[in-house]
């Protein structure tokens, strides 16, 4: 008689890895370098003057950021000509760009377009070649979809290379346009015959928008429709996740500047920051900024580690950080009093950037809907 077989122990599920929300020394060194560069070449008077010019981008600033510091290739592996870093380092760069609202096509080119191409560069070919050019900072590219497109809304914007796409961020300064169509993803030179980029007047003058009109244009096919949809979704997910770090930088600058001003501004022979009502408002804002930092860092870490929870982390970060940035900018304008309403003070730049960012890559409401779909609620 055969002895009964003992049941084999089942493998225990591994607990999810704890996200690392702290900054490494390398990340702090990168922050110092970027902050010093922006303080030298993108201070408030310089940025305000740039918004009044026809060309808001400073080529020397972009060259120093992209090539001198090497920020353009942070997400690109070394074998493809990049720095081989991660989304955590790119998030630090975006925090500092948010602090200065510097007009630079970093988010659109070095994050969204780069991530889109990374999904296609495994087998070499034109995607890998273009990726190397973006990593070197010699060229810039944008994904030709409306700036408000959420990651879950990634799809072909045109049937062929004929038609119009409106509201593309940074298209007016891009060298290459990545156009998702029903035939696949095309790379179209901005100066190609049949391609016309018309600048728009946006709310946020530090990140210009444009309309792309294609009429008989030609381009290089980078991917099939299926691969194109996956690549575009990856690019938009990274853009939405790291946009939260830019929103964090906006909120941190607004809080710091507001606290500094209310300490120096006197009324009734005492600093206005000593009034209890204002203390409560700034304390509440500080709590929101601290929470936004945790959400933004969690999204960056999830993207960097390839976590399966990355879509959820990104949706949570965007659902929260966009509102915090707007609130911080509104408080900054209001608590600065009359000076906060002037064109010469940079507070309005932060409010406009925060408002524009609040609908970029999906509104807070669309991301809350994504959270509801991704979270598995227990049965009642």
Shape: globular
Oligomer: single chain
Please work out how many helical segments DSSP would assign: 11
The percent range for helix content is 40-55%
Going across the biggest sheet, name each strand in turn.
1-3-4-7
- Termini separation comes to 48 Å
What's the mean pLDDT score? 92
Q: Helix- and strand-based class?
A: alpha+beta
Q: Major sheet, described briefly? A: 4 strands, mixed
Strand content: 5-15%
What is the radius of gyration?
Answer: 22 Å
Strand segment tally = 9
Instruction: Summarize the helix and strand pattern as letters.
Output: HHHHHHEEEEEEEHEEHHHH
Identify low-pLDDT runs.
Answer: none
What does this structure look like?
- The chain is of the alpha+beta class and about 375 residues long.
- The strands form 3 sheets. It has a 4-stranded mixed sheet with strand order 1-3-4-7. A 3-stranded antiparallel sheet has the order 2-6-5, with no helix packed on it.
- Helix 9 runs antiparallel to helix 10 and helix 9 runs antiparallel to helix 11.
- The model has no long low-confidence stretch (mean pLDDT about 90).
């Amino acid at each position: 008689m055969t002895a009964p077989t003992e049941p084999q122990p089942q493998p225990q599920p591994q607990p999810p890895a704890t996200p690392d929300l702290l900054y490494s020394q390398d990340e702090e060194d990168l922050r110092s370098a970027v902050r010093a560069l922006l303080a030298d070449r993108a201070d408030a008077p310089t940025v305000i003057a740039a918004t009044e010019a026809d060309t808001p981008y400073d080529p020397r600033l972009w060259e120093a950021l992209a090539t001198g510091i090497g920020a353009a290739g942070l997400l690109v592996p070394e074998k493809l000509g990049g720095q081989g870093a991660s989304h955590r380092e790119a998030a630090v760069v975006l925090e500092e760009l948010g602090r200065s609202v510097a007009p630079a096509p970093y988010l659109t080119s070095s994050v969204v377009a780069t991530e889109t191409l990374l999904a296609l560069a495994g087998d070499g070919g034109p995607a890998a070649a273009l990726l190397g050019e973006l990593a070197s900072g010699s060229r810039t590219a944008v994904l030709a979809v409306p700036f408000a497109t959420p990651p879950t809304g990634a799809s072909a914007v045109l049937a062929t290379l004929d038609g119009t796409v409106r509201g593309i961020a940074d298209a007016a300064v891009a060298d290459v346009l990545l156009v998702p169509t029903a035939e696949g993803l095309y790379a179209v030179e901005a100066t190609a015959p049949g391609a016309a980029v018309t600048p728009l007047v946006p709310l946020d003058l530090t990140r210009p928008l444009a309309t792309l009109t294609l009429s008989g244009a030609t381009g290089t096919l980078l991917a099939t429709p299926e691969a194109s949809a996956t690549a575009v979704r990856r690019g938009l997910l990274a853009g939405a996740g790291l946009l939260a770090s830019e929103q964090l930088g906006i909120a941190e600058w607004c809080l710091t500047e507001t606290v500094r001003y209310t300490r120096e501004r006197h009324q009734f022979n005492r600093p206005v920051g000593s009034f209890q009502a204002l203390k409560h408002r700034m304390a509440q804002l500080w709590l929101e900024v601290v929470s936004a930092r945790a959400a933004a860092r969690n999204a960056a870490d999830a993207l960097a580690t390839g976590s399966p929870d990355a879509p959820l982390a990104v949706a949570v970060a965007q659902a929260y950080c966009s509102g915090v940035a707007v609130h911080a900018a509104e408080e900054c304008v209001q608590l600065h009093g009359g000076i906060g309403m002037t064109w010469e003070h940079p507070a309005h730049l932060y409010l406009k950037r925060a408002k524009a960012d609040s609908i970029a890559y999906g509104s807070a409401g669309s991301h809350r809907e994504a959270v509801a779909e991704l979270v598995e609620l227990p049965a009642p």
